Amino acid sequence: MNAACFDLADLVLTRAGRTGSPAYRLEIPRLTVWPGARIGLVGESGIGKSTLLDILALIRRPDSLRHFQLSGRDIAQDLTRGRMRRLTRMRRRHISYILQDGGLLPYLSIGANARLARRLARSDQADGIENLAQTLGIASLLGKLPSALSGGQRQRAAVLRGLASGAQVILADEPTAALDSQNAGAAMRLLADLPRDRAVIVSSHQEALLTSCGFVLWRLVAQDRSAVATRVTLKIEAA
Ligand SMILES: Nc1ncnc2c1ncn2[C@@H]1O[C@H](COP(=O)(O)OP(=O)(O)OP(=O)(O)O)[C@@H](O)[C@H]1O
To answer: Does the keyword Ribonucleoprotein apply (predicted)?
Structure first.
């Protein structure tokens, strides 16, 4: 059997409270993501969806953890010791992170952004960039710079670039937030229909869309909330 894409245990991330806002503590006792998983990360605004995606993308270091495996590799020590070069290499090889604001290189066209992502990942993924762009409704925009696109078009371009890399793990932070319902449906179905050897974790407030596309909901919830601190954990809902 293939290794889990993610397998982690007893992870804690804290943030000190600022004036007027409580301290924040995210506790993940156990989290395992298998190839083929379709996970919708949900929860109220500010609960920590982006924070958890950043942790899984190896961008944000937790305060403590007992165990962290990415695609069968134990990277707990790399994380606790902040070995950024090794973590960057692991991220490039295994993970594609579709950011809320697009994160596209402003001086490259949409098509060139996608081709660069594919080259950097050394991907031999069969699905062409043009086919993906067609499904996302942005095929005619491949020659344009990100600055010439609307917010929703940029968001679809970010999805295109994320998928072009062919990474085994796709993380996407609210990839359909700026889209009308038709384009949101097309983008979410594209993510859901990726080959079954890929794992997809998408944060979103559009729970009905997630479930209609076959995503299992993982909900971040506050276990304790007071004026000084909020303690958050993850609840996995039945499929
Ligand atoms: N860079 C930061 N510095 C300090 N606090 C932060 C930072 N980023 C997020 N937070 C806080 O951490 C908590 C989790 O934020 P996060 O952005 O992960 O939530 P979210 O569930 O993704 O929210 P939304 O649905 O609004 O995008 C919030 O209390 C937020 O205010």
So the answer is: no
Q: 147-177 pLDDT, tens per residue?
A: 999 888 988 899 899 888 888 999 999 999 8
Distance CA 69, CA 3 (A): 9
53 lines ligand 1 (CB under 6 A): no
Q: What integer is the mean pLDDT of 175-201?
A: 90
Compute the distance between CA of residue 8 and CA of residue 31 in angstroms, rounded to an integer: 5
Domain ranges of the chain: 6-237
Q: Which candidate, 33, 87, 65, places its Cα nearest to that of 215?
A: 33
pLDDT of residue 124: 63
Cα-based distances in Å from 63 to 16, 76, 148, 208, 228: 12, 11, 40, 34, 19
Q: Please tell me the distance from the alpha carbon of residue 33 to that of residue 13, in angstroms, as a whole number.
A: 19
Indicate whether residue 50 lines ligand 1 (CB < 6 A).
yes
| ipTM of the complex model | 0.94
> Any bridge partners for residue 202, and if so which?
40, 172
Nearest CA to ligand 1 atom 23: 46
- Residue 30 parent element (H or E): strand 23-33
125 pLDDT band, cuts 50/70/90, is: low
